[in-house]
Amino acid sequence: MAQSSSTAAQKPEVSPTTASQQGDNIAHALAGAGGGLLSMTLTYPLITLSTRAQVESKRAQSSTYDAVRRIVQREGITGLYAGLDSALFGISVTNFVYYYWYEWTRAWFENAAIKAGRASRKLTTVESMIAGAIAGSATVLITNPIWVINTRMTAREKEVHSDEVLPGGEGGSEKNQKSYKKKSPSTIGTLLALIRQEGPSALFAGVLPALVLVINPILQYTIFEQLKNVLEKRRRVEPRDAFLLGAFGKLMATSITYPYITVKSRMHVASKQGPKDNMFESVRRIVREEGWVGLYKGIGPKVTQSVITAAFLFAFKDALYDMSVRARRTVPAKIVAQ
């Protein structure tokens, strides 16, 4: 009997600690995906406005109010939600991948801290930045094609190419406006058209700026985690605290990295016939043609959208994660009771 027990103990099974950590990583990833879906749905019209402001021509500049009015006039209220389906799919995949790798990296650092005999398991600033860099880079490479398609759908560049102006800007005959309303390509339709006309490599347009923009979540989550660590020393962090901390972290990160966000959007919608510049050439072109202010076109709606989305994301994620923890505790208890 003892020999049998000894043999069983030597089997290469996954330890409960490892299994528990894996389950926790997936729970964080699912909570992040769910939080992203909810927050994206609430703030998507602002994403539409920001994207169009970033990519429309110089002579199509307009205020946020005018942009809303023109979009609704041309396309109806649904115009504010152009590309929502691909955005929801994209944000769910993006957040799942990001949070999974972030929590995996965090767990690795925490285990290393325990083995090293460090007083606190909490991530240091440098560790938070490394975790954000690893998670962000993996996310960019996996999800960039999704966001290229979403940006194309949101900007509607293809339908109005002959007018050389995006919806929400000036120009275009009444006939063109009517025909524009009828054209609303699906996500699959946009994907197939993109591959057919520009090749599969077009799905990775803007990868370099996107990788540079990994600094955005690095800054965001580092600020969030460090402020959260300070607050946890005083009391338990509630979803409303996560809402405020997430908003502040995103405000700082987006304000710093916005010029790169503009460059990435421009590269996503660059047509096959138009000039195709690399990241540095795009920056020089924008500054030469529009001045330094061109790098910050649409920053108002973008910062507003990013901050609100991040705030809701962190709040929803914390709430969903707490629900998953309670569910994981309740289900085994019910099974044992039966």
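^ that was protein a. below is b, sequence first then the tokens
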Amino acid sequence: MDAFTPQQTTELMSRIGCKKAHMRLDKLFINSCMTGPLLGFGCAVMTSTEAAPWYQENAPGLIRTVSASFFPIGLVMIVLSGSDLFTSNIMFMTVAFLNRRITIPDLLKNWVISFLGNLAGMLFFIAVVTGYGGVFETPAYRTATFNFATMKMLTPQWHQIMLRAIGANWLVCFAVFISISSREIVSKIVAIWFPTLTFVALGLDHVIANMYFIPSAIFYGHPDIGVGLYVWKSLIPTAIGNIIGGGLFVAAAYWYLYLTGEGAIDIDFNLGGLDTAMEAGGPMGRGQSGQSNGDVIEGKDPEGSSEQTIQLPHSGGRMTSGLSKELSADKFGARKESQGKDQV
């Protein structure tokens, strides 16, 4: 299987958290602002799909699952573009802190800036694109927007919202975790899609997604929801629950399982070497000459003589990718060592 192991993935999360902790503040804020609209597109498609009165009346579970299947569009764009999502940063920064690569001020700085940036970007998206842009001007869309906000905030109690938020970011961070373990784009998309679909289909609460659903209802004039109630009964409990879900049930759990008491974690960033190809595809009818440590595989021509060989190019040569340069063990091992001396 051509993927990073859970231990290697947890180590990569620690290195990513360290890298994010040393990002310039202006870049962190702008990158976080860009995240809001990307997730907003997924939220908007979900709202559009929910605007189906007959299904809401007769098959609410079905229409919820169908709409949930479109929501992961936003998270896919966020992960593949390297944008800063507050809820996934909870996981990255917690692992990096527990692995002694960053400090508590580094963690809190990243959380606060990414949270505010996500909020600013989402409010911009609501006002400019779906608000004044008139995307949801028709009565059916407004009704769906009001009903969704009511279901998210007015119907459940405060503690229920917080508990639902734990499950939401548990699944979101797990989706990001297994996407990091994937080595190529299609696998990353599939890894993100199904855990994200699950949390949406279950009606769990994600603080950044709710930055679209609730303010959209306020924008269109929901009679029972205002800014103060939104902050108290949605923003605060979902943020607390998301921190617990991503920080405790994913970051702390996998840090304890895979990084405590372990030495240096070796990570190979090369893709598709001979050993991986043989494991995944079985016998290929090609002869192997020694160990695969060069730039070619030697294979036999099935239509030629047994003595004739051909040179097959492959991607298992000794190449250094951009990702390996960014997340190399030398770079982050030095940071971890220096951070540990500072804390002592």
